Structure formats: structure tokens, C-alpha cells
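so the lab meeting is tmrw and i was supposed to have these ready like two days ago... anyway. pasting both below. for each one the top line is the aa sequence and the line under it is the C-alpha cells. i havent really looked at them closely yet so no promises
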Amino acid sequence: MSRGAGQAGLRTGLIAPQMLPLARGGMRARLAGGAQDLARVQALRALCWPGETPDPLDTQAGHLMIEGRDGRLLAAMRVAVAGSGAALHDCYAARYYDLSNLQATEGPLIEPGRFSLAPGAANWEVLRLTWAALARLVLQMGAGHLFGCASFPGTDWHPHREALALLAGHQGPDALRPGPRAPERVAYPALTGAVTDHKAALAGLPPLLRFYLTLGGWVSDHAVVDRQLNTLHVFTCVEVAKMPKARQVSLRALAVD
């Protein structure tokens, strides 16, 4: 991250993420180091998120980069870090959800978002290194929560009915669950019928959301419609201390060189 980006983050209540590079299988995970890296990240994201306009959060957050042996950018993810719950209003998810219930939590809290995969890079090893880098971020930042908006393609919920209905069984506790803010919402109780194909429903979840659920994560009680990006967003949160012990052990192992 550039010095300017770090200073902007501090002004808004966000703090600069810190992570030592992680190398594995001929690939490397690292944080963006300046304007040139940011331009590469934004170029990849433009391919994956048509309709997105420049976002001030890009210069206030860090950016995780997964590079191949030849230096090609295989995947990227924006990473905003709130130093405490009081800084959550500066994060992306706060544009669509009322995060007041989470403001009493102790920080830091990490918000990954805008996960982007280069054409032809959608393989397990790239995803595995991405999750390993996220685990390293959590450990090195001492984060207590991972949260963010997982995105389904399109604004019509019908093609995602089973996946969204599956999420009805993973709603977060009332004391922490975010409230409504977006004008257009899809409430899970409105989705009629039970899940008929659990495997297909899981496969229909965005990769980041599916990963969060394996960590014991929970979701909001509704999805929100983003017509600019032509997506449905679902708030997702992982409380690090409440992750299954076996998952904590495996992620710690994954995060080391």
C-alpha cells in the first residue's frame, strides 16, 4: 500500500493492512505496493465487475494480489481494515446494511471484497492461496472478525432461489445481525419452498461466501439489490474466536510458509 493510501485510511477510521508475502506452488500472495499495482488490480476488476465506477475506498484500503510464476495477476481482492467497530461506517458493507449492532465489537475487523479472478485462473490452487493469504492477514492483524458483501450475479433472485434459501439456515444472531439500509431487498422468508438439492445450492454460492460458511460464518436475513453492478449482495460475517477448532488449526497451518 502506498503512503498516501495509508494516510487516507487513517483519516477515515480505516487502518492499513499488514501482511508478509506468502509464496506457494510457484505463486505469490502479497499486498499491492503503490499506484502501478493498484492500476493492475483495477484493470482486472473491470473485467470481472462490469459497470463499476472508481471507488474512493480503493485508495483507503489495501489490495491482496495473487501472482503467477510469470508475474501475471491471477486474482485480486480489496481488503479494508476497521481498527474497531466504530469505524465500520467507512466500510463498503455499510452502504447497504446498518452495521450498528456490530459497532460494540472489538477490532480490528477485516472486510475483503471485490474478489476478482483472471480469465483461466479459476482453479483450486489459486483459491487455496487466496484463503491462505486471508488467514495470514487475520493472524498478523489480530482480527476478531471477517465480514463483507458476497455477490451473486444479476439482480433477479429467482435463479439463486435455492442458494438463498440455503442461507436462511445460516442467519446471524439477532444481537449482531445487520439491519436494513438498501431500498431494494430480498428477504429469505419470501423464498417459497425448501432446498431440494443441497449440493447444487452450495455450488451456487459465491466462492468467498462458501468459504465463510465452512468457517462457521453467518449471514444477514436479507440480500440487497445493486442495479449498478447488476448483483445481489449478502452480508456475511465470521467471528474468528467462534470458528471450529479444527478449522482454526488448519487455517493457521495454511497461513505459514
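ok protien two:
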Amino acid sequence: MKILVTGATGFIGSRLCHVLVEQGHDVIVFHRRESSLEGLDGLPLKMIAGDITDDPSLSPAFDEKPEVVFHLAARHVHSRNNDRLIETNAGGTRRIIQEAFRVGVSRIVLMSSALTIGYADAVTNDNDITAAIDENHNWLNPPSYWQFAWSKLYAEREAQWAGLFGMDIVICNPFWVVGPNDTYRLWSNLVSQFIQHPPKSIINGGVNLVAVDDAVRGLIHAMEYGERGKRYLLCGKNLSFSHLFGMLSEITGKPAPQLSLPGSLSNRIVNYRLRFRNLFPNAELFDDPIFFSGKYFYYNDNESRLALHLPPPSDIRETLQKTYEWVINGYEKQINLSAAQN
């Protein structure tokens, strides 16, 4: 099958391309000219450079007549001009859909985010997922809060409108995807951050971590089994920050925080950082746990897992262990390269 992948040079996109090639598909990669192609080395791909916000540059990719499109390209960084989030994530999705209509694409798999579904009520037990939310929950915060979430929500609405006009679109909503080979974030992924800057305190709240291979499997199963117009959670393990930091401490050997930060204070910190984004112009949403403090991003994807014929999620500790080994190996390579250049 001929498949077009946008965002193919990213963490999830590059792994998706590897799996699609292994399955025998003919893969077309649409990427920005300045993107690193390191994660795609050695793959037999049709490479087309362009930008999803630029109509003329999109046409050559769709002139290849793909049967399926995986649309993963998105902007995550908080910047001084958050209109770019909407233009890239929602406007780019609209352009992808328009081109898909033009050439008769059979199905689009849109990768959104579980952030568009919202977050759970507070829980008191790390193992209690009774408060975890599913696909039927809705994000209730104003647009000024979590602008990335709103930009992806607008992208989903573009998809829903297209569905009304006959386009076959399936939406996938992973949360925090982790694993090795995140080449763009060797120095800033969750494990690297913990190694370089071990947290000084435990913060309230929790997150859902999903292994990258599980997220990719979910995307492919959405192509194969997803119901037109539906959105599917692609999740893994719900972890309180206390549990997560303890796990990372065991894996990395770095000290786990002992001091507990009051929920009211952690909420004020995250609200400050979201309100005064200009002070943190290059902050990546999924680099710093403080952005999620005070809230429980706990999800129940049982319905999605059943509908998409997905196996149980991978062991998240094992995934973090593999990520740690990849990070350490990457550090050593960087050090050796620097020494050789000097």
C-alpha cells in the first residue's frame, strides 16, 4: 500500500516509518527541509520536502497518489506567537485534508493528543484508576490555558468537518510517549531531564506514559480497524509523580526527591509558566513535568484497545530502562565525538 507520513522525522513518525517499511508498504515521507533525517537512515523512502502550512509544497507529496495518510506533523513549542500553534496544527491539518480530497485518499489517520480529552479528578491512591477518563470526556479549560491542547482540538474539529463531507478520518490520542531513539530530544527527554536536573521535590498530580512502539502499533491498527469518525486513546501506564520519580531514581541512580511540594504552590508555578510564556519561549510541552503538576492526566483506553485489537501495554519500567541505556550511549558518543574534534 502507498502511504504518506507527515511528521516522519519526529520521534513517533520515524518509528512509524520503520514499521511500515517492515510491513512492506511503499512509504512517502513529507518533511521540512531543515529537519534531521537521522531517524530514517537506511530506509527505502520517497522523500519530499515542504511545509504543511504552505499549499504549493504539499501538492507534490499528494501527487504521488497515496492511499492512506498518517498526519503526525505538529508544533509543540510554546512561543511568543502562539498563533503559529493554530496555523500549524489546525491550519496544516485543513491543508492536508484538502489535498487528500483532491487526490482521493482512502483514509487519514490523524494523531492528536489526549490533552484534548482533558484530565481526571484528583485521586488518592496511585493504583486507583477509577477516576481515569476515557474518550467521552471533554476538555473544559478556556483557549488561553494549554494552547497546544486547543490547537490540537481545532485540528480534530477540522477532521470532524471533513468527515461530514465524506472524508474517512480516524483520530488517535496518545499522551506522553516515551522510549529510545528520540533523536531530537537526546538532551531534553524525560530521562535526560531527570539525569541532568533531578527534581528537588515531589509534585502533586500524575501522567500517563505510553511506549513509543505501543503508540505506533495503535496508529497502524487505527488504519486497519478504526471506525470512520472515531477517536481512540493510545495509552499506557498511569503514574503519580511520586511513583514516576521513584522509578526514574531506581533506573538512573539519581536521588529521588524527598520534599513534597504543596499542591497549591505547584499549581501557582505551572499557572505562572503558562501565563508568562515569553519568559520560557522555547519550553517544550513534554520536556518538563512541572507543566502537568497539580493535575492527574489519567486515562482509561479499554474501549479503544478493544476496538483496535490492541494487546496489553508494554511494561513502562522496561521502556524507561531502554530509554536510559540509549541516553547514556548517546552521551558517550557525543563526548567521544567532541574529543575527536578537539
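from a quick look at the 2nd one: The longest helix spans residues 316-341. The longest strand covers residues 26-31. will dig more after coffe
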